[in-house]
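Journal club prep, notes for RB
We'll compare a predicted complex against what the paper describes. Inputs for the zinc ion case:
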Amino acid sequence: MADYYDILGVPRDASKDDIKRAYKKLARQYHPDVAQDKTEAERRFGQINEAYSVLADDEKRAYYDRYGSVPSAAQEGADFGGFGGFPFGDLFDTLFDFGGGGRRQRQARPSRGSDLRMGIRISLVDAFQGASREVELTSDVACAQCEGRRTLEADGFQNCPQCAGMGQVQQIINTPFGRLTQVAPCAACRGQGRQLVKPCPGCRGAGRTPQKRTLSVKIPPGMDSGDKIRMRGEGEPGTLGGPPGDLYLVVEVAEHEEFRRQGDDLSRSLKITFTDAALGASVEVPLLTGEKETLKIPGGTQNGTVFRFKGKGMPRFQRSGRGDLHVEVEVMVPTKLNSKQKKLLKEFAEAGSQEAEPQSFFEKIRDAIFG
Ligand SMILES: [Zn+2]
Ligand SMILES: [Zn+2]
């Protein structure tokens, strides 16, 4: 999105009059009724109006200067408190109102703050055991000076002159069904019915200030990538005494060098010697947490064979029990043999009758040693 100041061609410290003058000049130039290139003019005209609607309004401008953008009503819904938000609670009377009797003084009402989302990266070991973490974040909190009221003065707000404090405006429109009165939220005050005239100096009227915070987070065992930890009340502040939103920490479990995770199961590979594979042996399998499990390998075990340890996988998140651990053996063929070993293996090969044994394993060994 282009910068609003650039769109209007004014410096960042431009006065309200400067902004108004720049707007009028550009609006005349790009008005779709007078411009040559209608499509381009419409686009520019829209941008100019959008820029002006923000920069001409003290509180919107303050917000824009601080954050570089202004949330639209559509994006933020009723939760966005800075400008009061669009009055969704009264959607019905903002639609077609035949009698025009739905017009009444509206009250700005408390709204809940927006939820926040933040990623948190943990190791597979943390996911296995659970962990405690300190999370640092910068997010808005209610302004300490005005406590979110946006002004320090009793007369900090005045009724919107555009809608006389009603928060909505009526338009007569002609439709195939006859003339209808359309009641729409007032654009000047965003349906609030009031305008901030004496903004709090602490927050320039935004009612909130960014603050760096540190939160202690408990990560329960068994969490997987995409799981969320909800921290109640740690989101954006509400407005007019509304409750704050929540903070959602979205977990991302980092890859592990040795262990892979599939749901609640873990798998790892384990190197074994070709003699252990051929003759059978007891070997130690290191677990994720550093403990060891004993694996009995039967004689004649093939490369790639998977052994399963039931209940030695990941803890099941918010359920009892654990997944399984799959151990895939990788048979190591020696690359350096001394003359005695070579002699023995030659004798072994010549002893013949390996047909009954699975073929590929011994072929591999032969190829590796003699090939
Ligand atoms: Zn304030
Ligand atoms: Zn208004």
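Talking point for the session: Confidence is low (pLDDT under 50) at residues 73-105.
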